[in-house]
Write a sequence for this structure.
């Protein structure tokens, strides 16, 4: 079998198009422009690339983008003061503090200072609790993107066996909650899991989010299973230079799986598309408008 390739790039472009249509409508009908504030502390090169890309796509869908670049020495008090200012600003509907933060800053404290209604990352403890209890929340962007692709590919996920590899707060745990919410039987595996290959072999859906390059090999995959690769790892090429790979060994898995997301061009583009969808959702909720259909759970 050769797997169907789930084209995350095309999927993300479609989601951004839906967001843009909805943004144009609420601008025209209600005079409201959704606004996303992104806070970057320090000069981490990868974070700078992400933030630039977020800003560009935010403007492209017709939203306002507010970038706050703070130097690496910024104090906790100054960062909290900026968040308080953004919480109070009616033009800001979504707030994202780019992670990781410099070591002297307390990430939990900073994230939990964001107004949960503006927490478009879905990392605030209130949103984590709401998601865990099946209530309306802001849903973390990467797992939301994975769920959208899975729902589109399969229709109903009810009764499917899902194995999530990785237990991070950003991906693994919320992914498991979302799959459970769609009535999958969910196993969360991680670096200490025994007999990982045997556990993955029973899955109809595999979501790999461990941060280990090409760890999941084709002989772990049940024939016909859907493989979602969240990993982004840079590895050396044998003939010099580097290339991006996922947590899945693409070539061997694509021979066995029914469907698979590539790296790059799979989950990655969906993360920013879902951030924009979440900003739109936050804006609609704050203004008491109907939420966009299909762009949140
Ligand atoms: N750093 C890497 N991924 C993310 C993300 O999804 N949100 C934030 N805030 N920081 C990140």
């Amino acid at each position: 079998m050769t797997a169907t390739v789930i084209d995350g790039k095309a999927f993300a472009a479609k989601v951004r198009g839906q967001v843009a249509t909805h943004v144009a409508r609420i601008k025209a009908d209600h005079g409201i422009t959704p606004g996303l504030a992104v806070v970057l502390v320090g000069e981490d090169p990868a974070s700078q690339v992400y933030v630039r890309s977020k800003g560009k796509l935010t403007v492209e869908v017709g939203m306002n983008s507010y970038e706050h670049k703070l130097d690496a020495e910024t104090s906790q008090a100054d960062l909290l003061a900026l968040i308080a200012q953004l919480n109070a600003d009616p033009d800001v509907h979504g707030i994202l503090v780019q992670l990781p933060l410099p070591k002297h800053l307390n990430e939990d404290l900073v994230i939990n200072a964001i107004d949960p209604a503006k927490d478009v990352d879905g990392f605030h403890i209130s949103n984590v609790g709401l998601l865990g209890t099946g209530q309306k929340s802001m849903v973390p962007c990467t797992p939301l993107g994975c769920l959208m692709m899975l729902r589109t590919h399969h229709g109903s996920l009810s009764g499917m066996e899902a194995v999530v590899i990785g237990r991070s707060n950003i991906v693994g745990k919320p992914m498991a909650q979302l799959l459970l919410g769609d009535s999958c039987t969910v196993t969360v595996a991680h670096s200490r899991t025994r007999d990982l290959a045997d556990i993955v072999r029973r899955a109809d859906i595999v979501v790999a989010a461990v941060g280990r390059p090409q760890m999941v090999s084709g002989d772990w995959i049940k024939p016909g299973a859907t493989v979602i690769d969240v990993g982004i790892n840079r590895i050396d090429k044998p003939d010099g230079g580097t290339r991006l790979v996922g947590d899945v060994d693409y070539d061997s898995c694509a021979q066995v799986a029914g469907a698979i997301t590539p790296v790059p061009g799979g989950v990655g583009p969906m993360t920013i598309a879902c951030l924009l969808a979440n900003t739109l959702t936050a804006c609609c909720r704050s203004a008491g408008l109907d939420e966009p259909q299909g762009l949140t759970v």
